[in-house]
Amino acid sequence: MSAQIPTAPPSGAPTRSAPPDARTDVLRARSRGARSGRLGATLAGFATLMVLWWALTHPAVVDDPILRAVAPQHALPAVAGLFARGVLVPDALASLYRLLSGLLVAAVVGIPVGLLVGLNRRLEQATHSPFQFLRMISPLSWTPLAVAVFGIGHEPVVFLVAAAAVWPIVMNTVAGVRAMDPGHVLVARSMGATHREILLAVVLPSIRPALLTGFRVALGTAWIVLVPAEMLGVRSGLGYQVLNARDQLAYDQVMAVIVVIGALGFLLDTLSRRLLERRRAAPAARATRAPAGAAVG
């Protein structure tokens, strides 16, 4: 009885692949490993930053009393002290309120403008140079006009934050519209869709990744502008708290507020990045599930 030699399946025959559950487990394991690697790298980076901070403010390196006062062994306890006094939480909430208000104004203005410019080639050519000119003006340059028009309070700060955040939103909206497949719009028109239906069902879903990227850039820019904008005479906010601590010559508290500003900015950027990654991963996940569903059917 002769031994049978296994032969390869015909070229058109389907090949066996790993079960979906096994593939899912492998992907989850890789994802956990990647997250662990990123977490380790992040912790190592922050540890290096702390060591440099401590070394650059050590009495053996500097003899300036102000620099010694902002050392981590003084600034970090000052953070806890400001929290215990009930100072940081109200100021952080005031800053976040102004930040979100400015971003809302920037979105209300920037998205429609970006859609109009992106959908009209002649309008884009006419507005390109003026937009680039206005975009290169520092938002803080508008401070005297903002105070003259809106007075002292929330309004000028919100205006300056919106002036900083509107351009990333406009530019990314235009880029998203320009990168959209025009065939989608043609198909929708051939099916009798109205302009409103095309905008809501075709254009906005297609430019969602570009919009989210624009919001992330706008968030970072607005947060950077917010702190100096809160030094205009308002009586709350993290920027005001920096000036208040400086006037008291409490430089450990100045550094404590700076640390809180950096921590909140890092947290906001991380949340926006996670949202952007999740939105980008959702279409890919649906695409990988579609063939399995079709095979079962």
UniProtKB/TrEMBL annotation:
It is a multi-pass membrane protein. Residues 92-272 form the ABC transmembrane type-1 domain. Keywords: Cell membrane, Membrane, Transmembrane, Transmembrane helix, Transport. It is found in: Cell membrane. CDD domains: TM_PBP2 (cd06261). PROSITE patterns: ABC_TM1. One of its GO terms (cellular component) is plasma membrane. The keyword Thylakoid does not apply. One of its GO terms (biological process) is alkanesulfonate transmembrane transport. Its main location: membrane. Pfam families: BPD_transp_1 (PF00528). The chain crosses the membrane at residues 37-56, 96-119, 131-152, 158-177, 198-229, 249-271. Residues 1-22 are annotated as: Disordered. Belongs to the binding-protein-dependent transport system permease family. This is NitT/TauT family transport system permease protein.
